[in-house]
Amino acid sequence: MALEIKQSLRLTQQLIMTPQLQQAIKLLQLSQLELLTAINQELETNPVLEESLADEDPTPESWEGAFEDAPAELPQEGGPTQEVTVETKVTDDFDWESYLEDKMPPTIRQEREERDSAPLENLSPQGPSLKSHLLWQLQMSPMTDADKFTGVLIIGNIDEDGYLQTTTEELAQELHSDPGEVEHVLKQIQEFDPAGVGARDLQECLLIQVEIKGLTDPLVRPIIQRHLKSLEQRNYAAIAKELKVSLEQVAQAVEIISRLEPKPGRSFDSLETYYITPDIFVYKMGDDYEVSLNEDGLPKLRVNSYYRDALSGDAAVSEETKNYIQNRLKSAIWFIKSIHQRQKTIYRVSKSIVNFQKDFLDNGIAHLKPLTLRQVAEDVQMHESTISRVTTNKYMYTPQGVFELKFFFNSGISRTHGDQVASESVKDKIKQLVLSEDSEHPYSDQDIVNILEEANIVIARRTVAKYREMLGLLSSSKRRRTLCAKKKMSAETFSST
Predict the structure, then answer these.
(1) Tens-level pLDDT at each residue, the chain (497 residues)
(2) Does the model's pTM come out above 0.70?
(3) Exposure string over 455-476, b if 16+ CB within 10 A, otherwise e
(4) Are 198 and 186 in contact (CB under 8 A)?
(5) Helix H or strand E segment including 186
(6) Do residues 398 and 438 make contact, with C-beta atoms less than 8 angstroms apart?
(7) Rounded Cα distance, 186 and 194, in Å
C-alpha cells in the first residue's frame, strides 16, 4: 500500500476559554481582600479605569479649561526678547499643612505624629520569639566566645515547641569540634527559661523540669523514666504493680507530672490572630432571612471620561493612540462587568444556601441538612464547578456565627426511617456525648454507635472512630480516669471550699 499525503477537512467543536472568560473565572473565586488587591492592580495598569468618588463630577466637562493657560503658539526663535515678570500668586489649594510641618521644630513634629498615629488598641502586640529569648539569655550567660558560638548553632536547631531537632554528633561535625563540648553547652542551654527547652525528646524534657523545679516525689522520676508509655495509656494499675506501690500514690505522682509542660516553647507562640471579614451577611427579618454582600471598602469603578472623549471624531488623536485606548476601554468595561457578574453570582448562591439551611439558621448545628454542590447548582441553574469556585475562601455571617461557605456542604448519614442527617450534626452529637460521659466509665466507639442508633442514626464504628479523631478526642482507654485520682481531686475541691 503506497503512502501519500492528503488534505482533508474535519468539522469539530472545541471549547476555548478567552482571556476575558479566564479573568471572570479568576475574579469569581477571589475573596474580598483578594478582590480589592486585584482592583487596585487594575487601576494602576489600566489608565482608562478610575475610581468613582461621590464628591467628584463625573461629567467630561470637568476636563474643559485644563489647558486654557497654555500659549496659543510658542515664540519664534530669534525674535525680540521680552522681559519676563514673575507674578507671585497664592492659590486657595496651597497645602499649608505640609509647608508648616516642614518648618516645625522636631519636638512639636514628634508630638503631632504620636497624636495622629493609630490607637494602641488597633496595634498587634509583638512579643519576643523563643529563639530571641534564648539568644538573649545566651549573651547574658558567662560563657566563652567559643561556647556562645556553639550555643547560637544549638538554638538555631530548636523548633517552636522547644525541642532540639538534631544530635550533638551532627552539630560537632559541623563545628569541627568534640561532641562532648557540644553536650556541655547544651546542658547549659537546658537550664535556660523556659524550663525543659533544648530537650531531645519528651522524657528528657520532663526530667529537666523535674530537676529545675526541685520536685521531691519519689515516684515522679521512675514513672517518667520507665513507664511513660503506660502513663500515656492511663494504665495506672500496671505502673502501681511494677513499682509495688498503691494506686493512690501513683495517682498523686501523675497529678504532679500532669502539671509539667510537654511543649516548653508553647508560651512563645508567635502565631498571630487573624480576623475574618465575612463576604456575605445574613440577617433575620421577621420569619425570613435577608442576604447582603459585604462591599465595604470596594471602590466603585467607571470609565475615565477623558479617554472616552478622545475616541470621538473631534479629538486630534493618532490612529495608534486610538487603538490603544480602544483596547484599554474594552478591558475596563469587561473588568467592571466581571465584577458585577461575580457579585450577582455570589448573591444567588448564598441565597440558595440560606434557603436550604434555614433550619440550621433557626435552631443550630443539630438541624444542619446534608447538602451537595449539585443541589445548589440545579437550584441556581449553574454548573457545579461555578458553585465550587463561589464557595472557595468566602465566609458568611449568620445568626449562628461566622462559617465558611464550604461548611454548609456535607455528606449525609442515614436514619432508620429513611431520611438523612448531616455529618457535622453527627460530629456535634459525638462531641456532646464524650463531654457528658462518666470519666470512670467513658463510652467506647461501639457504645456511641449504640446510643446514636437509639436516636435513629445508623453509623459504623469505624466512622465514629474517624469523627472522634477529627474532633481531637482520645479513645475510651485514654479518657478513663482512676477512681482514686477522682477521689483525690474531689477531696482537694472540698478542702478548698
Answers:
(1) 567 888 888 888 876 777 777 888 888 888 888 888 889 999 899 888 888 765 554 433 333 333 233 333 333 333 443 443 434 344 444 444 454 445 455 554 455 445 444 454 445 556 678 999 999 999 999 999 999 999 999 999 999 899 999 999 999 999 888 999 999 999 999 999 999 999 999 999 999 999 999 988 999 999 999 998 888 878 888 899 999 999 899 989 999 998 999 999 888 865 556 678 889 999 998 889 999 998 888 888 888 888 777 777 666 777 888 888 888 888 888 899 999 999 999 999 999 999 999 999 998 888 888 888 999 999 999 989 889 988 988 999 999 999 999 989 887 777 766 667 778 888 888 888 888 888 778 888 888 888 888 888 888 888 888 888 888 888 887 776 544 444 444 444 334 43
(2) no
(3) eebebeeebbbebbeeeebeeb
(4) yes
(5) helix 179-189
(6) no
(7) 14
What does the domain layout of the chain look like in residue ranges? 130-268, 280-410, 413-487
Superfamily of domain 413-487: Homeodomain-like (1.10.10.60)
Q: Report DSSP letters for 208-251, one per residue.
A: HHHHHHT---TTHHHHHHH-HHHHHTT-HHHHHHHHT--HHHHH
Q: How far is CA 97 from CA 107, 112, 149, 167, 403, in A?
A: 17, 12, 52, 62, 46
CA 477 to chain centre: 34
Beta strands in 286-415 (DSSP E): 288-293, 301-303, 395-398, 401-404, 412-414
CB of 189 within 8 A of CB of 240? no
The Cα 425–Cα 456 span in angstroms is: 13
Q: 3-state DSSP call for residue 110?
A: helix
Q: With beta carbons less than 8 A apart as the criterion, state whether 189 and 198 touch.
A: yes
Say if CB 193 and CB 137 are below 8 A apart.
yes
